[in-house]
Amino acid sequence: MSPHAAPDYAALASDIKRWARELGFAEAGISGVGLQQDEQHLQGWLADGYHGQMEYMARHGTRRSRPDELEPGTQRVISVRMDYLPPGTRHAWEVIGDGEAGYVARYALGRDYHKLMRNRLQKLAERIRGAIGDFGHRAYVDSAPVLEKALARNAGLGWIGKHTVLINRQAGSYFFLGELYTNLPLPIDKPATAHCGTCRKCIDICPTQAIVGPYRLDARRCISYLTIELKGSIPEDLREPIGNRIFGCDDCQLICPWNKFAQDATEPDFAPRHRLDGAKLVELFGWSEEEFLQRTEGMAIRRTGYEGWLRNIAVALGNAPPSADIRAALQARADHASAMVREHVAWALARCDASSQPLAGPG
Predict the structure, then answer these.
(1) How far is 268 from 79, CA to CA, in rounded Å?
(2) Phi then psi for 123, rounded to 5 degrees?
(3) Which residues bind [4Fe-4S] cluster 2 (predicted)?
């Protein structure tokens, strides 16, 4: 397409989808900016307090659900997705079933996706500029108040499942999303239709019953929230159900029948680092703060912070089969400088003591 010709927006839309694939995205789609029903759903969710400490979910008013308020002049949103399931990793259910190992959500095993995807979106914008000249745009990857799942659904990339995660018929749900807001009047794609039917496996399997109903997630009970977003003590009644999940949770995705179609990541940077697809809890608990910061450089795990990391692992050690190694690891942190860490270590040690008590014999 010549930069001097009047744009053929249908041809440009086709080119954008091809360029997106060439840049490593699995798929791209285009939507308008109308999200009225999703705005009502968001407001109801916030009113119920399901966002917990995530004040940022309410901070931006209607800009989250009105793209043209966040970025004035926006007419269309180009949504992209990128598969993240690293090939060759230890099987998720195997790790969850190994009480001595720490489970890290599959999306967080390798490099943090935010910069990687934003850079690719900027390259996509550069290709568009090369074809038609300057145009208004802004790239987002989890970096601003954006209803990314609703926009991706409207762009045909998948439907929002009962667990509130986007599902694609050909690729399951293990993928990241990103957006390019633009002022170009591109033709929009047909929204995806829902295909959960009567299935409720994700609701039933949730360890903490955080999915309080179809499409209703109480984040305050969600293990991803508890191990990443929560900046204080994990409620005691939710510690045991967390099991050995030390950063995030995938159970609702692991059980989803549509993930039999999940695609492996093609991006090598998503490969696991430091054997985090099944490393031993005692080893991870032994990391110093310097080691934690060095080993999680450029990874999403950084978000929990070192104290949160120790807090989460202490809970997992309290849920693990008791052993001398686990008790020694916990004792080594019993006088930690952080009151939050000390609290969770004390809870875990009490669990070890209770599990080690011999059963009373017949009187």
Answers:
(1) 22
(2) -65, -35
(3) 206, 222, 249, 252
204 C-beta neighbours (distance < 10 Å), count:
11
The single-letter code of the amino acid at 152 is A
pLDDT digits (tens, 9 = 90+) for 244-295: 999 999 999 999 999 999 999 999 999 999 999 999 999 999 999 999 999 9
In the block, residue with structure tokens 């145009």: 135
Sign of CA dihedral 250, 254, 260, 264: positive
Instruction: Please give the annotated binding residues for tRNA, written as ranges.
Output: 231
So which residues are the catalytic ones?
142
Using one digit for the tens of pLDDT, what is the confidence trace for 66-78?
999 999 999 999 9
Hunting for tokens 């099987």 — which residue is that? 91
Q: Is the dihedral of CA 146, 195, 171, 26 positive or negative?
A: negative
Q: Which residues of the chain are modeled with pLDDT < 70? A: 1-5, 356-363
The closest of 45, 90, 40 to 66, measured between CA atoms, is: 40
Question: Which residues fall in the annotated binding site?
Answer: 64, 142, 166, 177, 196, 199, 202, 206, 222, 224, 231, 249-250, 252, 256
219: its two tokens: 């984040």
